[in-house]
Write a structure and sequence with these properties.
By secondary structure, the protein is mainly α. It is about 45% helix and about 10% strand. The chain starts with 16 loop residues before the first strand and ends in an 8-residue tail after the last helix. The mean pLDDT is about 85.
Length: about 130
């Protein structure tokens, strides 16, 4: 059914879902109730990322939005900034972004000692192999 006609999403019957893994079961449910009832739904009820620094989160967002949405903010450029991206992308299982940060760090001229430390800290096996 290929047409050149522009289509639109139905306002009531086009839902966005979120998937949870709970123990050994996957749950795919509408996203809306979670957005309305949970943290992050407003400035008065933000999601708190305790233990995460503002700078680390900012570097992650720069890399994430550039990669996903072709936005061009100032990308992380230093080893420290890409290490921030590596830290949070590993913590939150953003696999593609984690690999992107590893690739950037690999070409950044990172020192051998730092490579060993980061490889042990974040499970980068390719940096430990000959």
């Amino acid at each position: 059914m290929a047409t050149n006609k522009e289509v639109s999403r139905h306002s009531n019957f086009h839902i966005s879902t979120v998937t949870f893994l709970v123990e050994d079961s996957l749950f795919r449910v509408p996203r809306e109730p979670f957005q309305q009832e949970s943290e992050g739904s407003s400035d008065e009820n933000p999601i708190r990322l305790n233990g995460t620094s503002k700078d680390d989160f900012e570097q992650l967002l720069k890399a994430l939005f550039y990669r996903k949405h072709s936005l061009q903010p100032t990308l992380p450029h230093s080893i420290e900034q890409w290490t921030s991206v590596l830290k949070l992308s590993t913590l939150w299982s953003f696999e593609k972004l984690c690999q992107a940060s590893i690739d950037m760090l690999t070409t950044s001229g990172i020192g051998a000692i730092d490579r060993v430390v980061l490889s042990q800290q974040y499970g980068i096996k390719s940096w430990l192999l000959p």
